Structure formats: structure tokens, C-alpha cells
Amino acid sequence: MENEIRADGTICDLNYLSEMLGARKPLIKGIMDTFLEQIPVELSSMNEAIATTDYQSVKRYAHSMKSSVSILGITLLSPVLSEMESLGLAGTNMERIKELNVTLHWVCKEAMAELEAVKGDYI
Amino acid sequence: MKMKNMIDIFIVEDNKILSQTLKADIETTFAQKDVRIHLFESGGECIERFSKEKPPIVILDYHLDSKKAGAMDGIKVLDKLKKENSDVDVIMLTSEDNIAIAIKSFHHGASDYIVKSETQYKKINNSLFHLIKMREAKREAKRYKRLAVSFFLCISLIVVSIVVMQVFAPFLLR
Predict the structure, then answer these.
(1) How does pLDDT run across A13-64, given as a tens digit for each residue?
(2) Where are the domains of chain B?
(3) CA–CA–CA angle B79, B80, B82 (5° rounding)
């Protein structure tokens, strides 16, 4: 997994948003703020789905989070969430889902720390 | 207050990060036009405001159930919007590249169907560009039609006046 972290050591890639929105930094900051609010809620929902062995909800939340993380360029999570979604759809292998969830939490925590550190540059 | 030629666009998407990014992108791309975006996380919220505001364009997520299982799906919302206003243009947005969903969306009246991917923002903007252009063209066509009708009515009135004068008061035309 460490090999998939970007060359500059960061997890998030904000180039995509910067290219899309140009110099409109307040808009980028707004999206970052929404990410920082939404991701903890989604992670908590995922934990609940796993605790209750709710494969359908695991699939739903993994599916939703794929869109969320791709906007912030967190490519590290694409294969993790895709696998969680597939396992949720198949309704199988909760142990593997739990392993992937650990990775999901770790990467999200690092991503949020990165965004907190840089969002001051987007006022 | 709604300004003349302001274009209201509703976005119905339960993922706030995605809807906010989409809003920011559309506002940036269409900065020269009077575009006003309204965000909704559920079909129910959208339908409530739709009947009051009657926006010409709606961007609608197909699933809408990432937060609440069993939430009204995009097709049901599409049906209700079309029932309220058959003229509304609805762009269906989905993460599944599935021909059956595409056909179903078009069958229920969607104007376009876009798969969520890296190029979704460009595709949505292209779709909006064409829909807005088409609406502007229709508005212009209506205006020209009204002008043409008014012009022919005036000509008809003049001709009828001349004929009436010829018949009843020919001395006026000598």
C-alpha cells in the first residue's frame, strides 16, 4: 500500500479540483469542508453495517464513498472500496470486508489530516 | 425574485461532496449565464420545491439510497417530475454503465443519461450546454412566430380597411 501513496507522500490529489474550478479557492475549500464533515459519518455508517453483517448497506456505503474519495483524488481507496462493494453485493466474506475497512479508516484519517493542514491555503 | 432569462437547475444527489462539486463546476463553466443551482439530497425535497419553482432542468441521481435504504429512486422521482411538468429536461446520473438503466431512463422521459466517471463533469456540462441552447432557440422561435403573426395581422387589417373604404367610401381613396 505504501507504494501507492503519491510520489510527494500525499494521499489527496487536489489538482483535479484545481483544474476544474481554477482560481475559485473558496469553492475548493467548501468541498474540502463537506468532505471533512461527510466522511466521518460515512465511516461510522460502514462500521455499523459491518457490525450488523448488513452486506447490502456495506455495498451501498462503499458505492457512495467511491464518488466522494475520487473527487479529492484519493486513488488509494478505489480498489479498496471496489472490493468492499463487490463483496457486499455478493453477500460474502465479512472477514475480508473488515480487513478492508481497517485500510479504509486509516487512509481516510490520513486524508482528513492532510486536508485540515492545507485548507487554510484555499481561503 | 426570478430575473428574466435566469435558468434554475435542480440537482438531486444524496452525496453532498458530489453535488457540491457539480454545483461549483457548473457555476464556473456557465459563469456568463444567469444560472442558479439548487441542491437536494432526496427526491421528496426536490418534488416539494419543484411544483413551486418549475425549473427547466433537473440533474437527477438514479439511486438516491446511499443514506437511506428504500429512499425514492431516480425513476420514481423522474415520473413525478414529468407528471408535474412534461416539459422539464432531466439528466439522469448513475454510476452503473448499464444499457437497461439507460433505456429505462429514456423510456420514462429523461433527456440524457450520464455515467459517473472522471469525465462526468464534462459530459454534464455538454448536456447542459445543448439543453440551454435548445431552450433559447425555442424561446427565440416563439418570439419570431409572435412577430410574424402580428405583422400579418397588421397587413390584413390594412388590406381589409382599403377594401372597406373602396366599397363604402370610394371618394376617400380618390
Answers:
(1) 988 888 888 878 888 999 999 999 999 999 999 999 999 999 999 998 998 8
(2) 7-138, 141-173
(3) 65
Dihedral Cα B23, B28, B32, B36, nearest 10 deg:
10
CB pair distance less than 8 Å for A21 and B28: yes
Which chain A residues touch B if contact means CB-CB below 8 Å? 17, 20-22, 24, 27-28, 30-31, 34-35, 37-38, 56-57, 60-61, 63-64, 66-68, 70-72
Just give the CATH number of B7-138: 3.40.50.2300
For B125, which residue in chain A has the nearest alpha carbon? Answer: A20
Q: Is the ipTM of this complex over 0.90?
A: no
Report H helices in B54-119: 74-84, 99-107
Using one digit for the tens of pLDDT, what is the confidence trace for A61-75? 998 899 899 999 999
pLDDT exceeds cutoff 80 at B70: no
Q: What is the pLDDT of residue A6?
A: 62
Domains and CATH numbers, chain A: 2-118 (1.20.120)
- Tell if the CB–CB gap between A34 and B17 is shorter than 8 Å: yes
Nearest CA in chain B to A25: B24
Question: Between A30, A60, A70, which is nearest B69 by CB?
Answer: A60
Count of CB atoms situated within 10 Å of the CB of B134: 12
Nine-digit cell string for B158: 390594412
User: What gap in Å lies between CA B35 and CA B92, rounded to an integer?
Assistant: 19
In a mutational test of the A interface, the residue from B13, B25, B66, B68 whose CB has the highest number of chain A CBs within 10 Å is B66
